[in-house]
């Protein structure tokens, strides 16, 4: 291995022979580093034997993760068409407004999950982003005002930064909607019950009082 980078939910490893090993984590994929073969984790789909005697397991409970060996990351369609990294310098408020304007009829949660528009925002984080911005998940992108778009941009970056800090935890932060919902708590702002609906087949949590 020469270097490793991330793009959305892809881990891109450049090998010393010039090729690239690409892991796509989809939903629930993870890496587990261990030394004793007896500690091999459940749902290991691929195990790398390292020169230092340790092992690195690529786990995927749903068995939908992907492993690819390619000459260039651009050989993978999902990487060729992927949108900007939401925490990168290339993603600005102007870019977000452009994305919203380009898809006026799309429901905003569906748009946030579209990797071709913005990279790496998952289902649970999209809910949290919209809660932070005070926007209902079923709202049409074209109906979001300039002020709301600014709030949405700030919420995207703040939620993802918080997610990175807690990424190694087995549970989501206590204040996240999913964490509160699972323990029977209400909205962290108004205390009302967290509501649920389905958007593009994904469970969606929101507060009908705090999100407009």
Short note summarizing the structure:
It contains six helices and nine strands, in the order βββββββααααααββ.
Share of residues in helices: 25-40%
Approximate shape: globular
Q: Tell me the span between the first and last alpha carbons.
A: 48 Å
CATH architecture of the largest domain: Orthogonal Bundle
Q: Tally the structural domains.
A: 2
- Overall structural class, as computed from helix and strand content, comes to alpha+beta
Oligomer: single chain
Largest sheet: 4 strands, antiparallel
Rg calculated over all Cα atoms: 19 Å
Trace the largest sheet across and list its strands: 1-2-3-7
CATH class of the largest domain: Mainly Alpha
Q: Per DSSP, what share of the residues sits in E-state strands of 2 or more residues?
A: 15-25%
Specify the number of helices.
6
Topology as a string of helices (H) and strands (E): EEEEEEEHHHHHHEE
